[in-house]
Amino acid sequence: MRQRAINLMNNREKGEKKTPRTGEMEMYQEYEQLLDDLVFLRKEAQEILAEEAKAEALSIGGKTKQKKNRSRMRRGLLVWK
């Protein structure tokens, strides 16, 4: 059963669509739906990871700017208005 799913994924990547044997149509449709769900979830996970990385990079960048400003203020180079 797992090998059948792997074969379906390989066929899908190659752009081939093989008709399943008689009695396997429901299983084939279920695998097809599961593959669609897997592709969707992987894309969604990648987007979430990218957003988290971007947010983390922005927060780190902001902290360093704040630290620089504090240092400048202590040395008298920066005056708050």
TrEMBL record:
Q: Which domain of life is it from?
A: Eukaryota
Q: Where is the composition biased (Basic and acidic residues)?
A: 11-23
Q: Give the residue ranges for region: Disordered.
A: 1-23, 59-81
Report what the protein is called.
Uncharacterized protein
Renumbered to this chain, the Basic residues biased-composition regions fall at 64-75
Organism, as annotated: Hypsibius exemplaris
